[in-house]
Amino acid sequence: MKNSSLLTIAGSDSGGGAGVQADIKTFAACGVHAVCVITAVTSQNTLGVQHVFALPAEVVVGQLESIFSDFDVGFAKTGMLYSSETIHAAGKYLKKHDVSYVVDPVMSAEAGGNLLSTDALLSLKDLIKDAFVVTPNRFEAQTLTGVTITSIDDAKRAALKLCEIGASAVVVTGGHLDCRDVVLSGGRFKVINGSVGGGTHGAGCTYSASLTANLMLGDDVFDAAKKAKNFVIDAISSSRQVGCGAAPVNQMHRIIKDANRFNVLQDLAYAVKQLQECGECVLLLPEVGCNIAMAIKEASTPDDVAAVEGRIVRLHDKMHPAGCISFGASRHVARIIISALRFNPLLRAAMNIRFTPEILDACNKLKLNTASFSREDEPSLTKTMDWGTSYAFLHAAKTPDVIYDEGGVGKEAMIRLIGTDALSVAKKAIVIARIASNA
Ligand code: PXL
């Protein structure tokens, strides 16, 4: 049996943020196979649209023929259609093959540039008659309904008018309405709140594409809309400045972050296992216990850093993890990494071990770069790990592998090993323990 594919009928954005590029990335991030019919080729960058070339109708029809003669199209989404001919062709094939579809009534690019021919508005309304969902922004909803929209109540009135045209459900997206989306489905309204900061080029396409993928995967309109909102907020907030103008949203962010978190957990689990199996490592345990931690790329809070819950303790003369490995499990070692990352984004792992002259000697024998701070120099109202780590980095001649302090009143002396990943830090600890145990 064939798996269903999700079809987008849309224009190409050479800047990679919106259009068919946004749709395919979003579909892929949602785990569905994307097929596409390209309706127009736009020449654009982050500063705007420089040129639009609408593909001849027979080229659009050719793509529709190829797709429908092979794939099982489970759902479809339309974006930039540009001409009446293309709109008719899209409608004809979607109806003929009984495919439910979402219409994103794209009219113009945010940075300027017409993406719908002026004589094609009536055809677009025709397509909306049989749409499962329509996802206009405030301006598109105004143009389609004649309702001036300056409030949520206005957006609701426009949504009702779009349902009168024939759409089963409507989302008036809130990029221009305090980030609040108005959803109308089955005669019921829901307003979905959201706050965003970041680049927005491609946000509309990405929202609509995510909504369509969620619908194909079985969500009702309200659930699909809520999930799409979260997806687009994530994509907007992780947008990057890649040109001189509007930053394109980042559809891959969530999936890459999840994969990164999984890799960190795996690396850390293997590192802890190595430490557990090392007989000599028990001598590295400080009174307060130790922990080993690793951060995802671009970590900014301790919740982006995984470590052992309840630290690593002594059991039967071996190191033993007291709890599971999870994100947010350590504030202390996490702070060391977050501070180190500011100096070198590759340094994503750290471990605190006992301070003894023999252990420090072992670090020196291994020619590790050591740096230190003194608790006496610590200004009040600072977090020791933030301050101590930054101090060591600022005063060291080379990037430190080892940062130590000799303790203070009521504070145990400590060594911290820093590295790129948990396994390499654990391996360093194992070698240090073996050298120190022979001293
Ligand atoms: O975001 C609307 C949109 C849709 N399709 C294409 C676009 C844009 C915006 O720039 O370029 C091809």
From TrEMBL:
Cellular component, GO, one term: cytosol
Pfam families linked to this entry: Phos_pyr_kin (PF08543), ThiN (PF10120)
Span of domain Thiamine-phosphate synthase ThiN: 268-430
EC number assigned by the record: 2.7.1.49, 2.7.4.7
GO molecular function: ATP binding; hydroxymethylpyrimidine kinase activity; phosphomethylpyrimidine kinase activity
Gene3D superfamilies: 3.40.1190.20, Class II aldolase/adducin N-terminal domain
Swiss-Prot/TrEMBL keywords: ATP-binding, Kinase, Nucleotide-binding, Transferase
InterPro entries found in the cross-reference section: Aldolase_II/adducin_N_sf (IPR036409), HMP/HMP-P_kinase_dom (IPR004399), PM/HMP-P_kinase-1 (IPR013749), Ribokinase-like (IPR029056), ThiN (IPR019293)
PANTHER family: HYDROXYMETHYLPYRIMIDINE_PHOSPHOMETHYLPYRIMIDINE KINASE THI20-RELATED, PHOSPHOMETHYLPYRIMIDINE KINASE
Protein's recorded name: Bifunctional hydroxymethylpyrimidine kinase/phosphomethylpyrimidine kinase
Lineage start: Archaea, Methanobacteriati, Methanobacteriota, Stenosarchaea group, Methanomicrobia
